Amino acid sequence: MLVTPKVLELHAPFTSMSNSTITIHNDTKKPMAFKVKTTAPKVYCVRPNASTIPPASSLDVSIIFQGLSTPPSLGDKCKDKLKIVSLPCDASLEAKDVSGKWSELEAAAGGATTDIKLKVSYVFDNEPIIEESTTPSAQQKDTQIKKKPANNNTLGDSTRIAIDDSYKKKQMN
Description:
Strand order of the largest sheet: 2-9-8-4-6
Number of strands: 9
GO cellular component, one term: plasma membrane
Helix content: 10-25%
Order of helices and strands: EEEEEEEEHEHH
Region (Disordered): 133-173
Strand content: 25-35%
Radius of gyration: 24 Å
Number of helices: 3
Domain MSP: 1-123
Largest sheet: 5 strands, mixed
Keywords: Membrane, Transmembrane, Transmembrane helix
Family: Belongs to the VAMP-associated protein (VAP) (TC 9.B.17) family.
Structural class: alpha+beta
Shape: elongated
Distance between the termini: 68 Å
């Protein structure tokens, strides 16, 4: 089995959904069944996530990135990976039955599966660099409030009050 591309590139903005395609090519003389696994199943939707490929044929697989709740920092490396596990199968196996019969297929193959790992990479080049202002605009304040987690318990209430009071004193001076 061959998979292209070797690295799945995710382009900014990383907080929105995007669709990528990988191509899986069966370079053997036997029909092959495959299953796509990911280290982050809530972040990626794979269609089809399991199927069959006739000999010397290819199949396009959609990888739908669901978007992150907060964007990665510039230069962050993505640790997500995809793994395509393949094994020989009977030509009569229907694509829709692969997931349900995967355990049987593995047993019949005697553990002779082929694993192809695909790394995921963040591409920041399309993201504009925005100068940060020392005083946030009203729109930025709204955005900051919306991006705050609902349950921010990293600071106790007394610490937050002390920080707020010291901030107000600096603003008055």
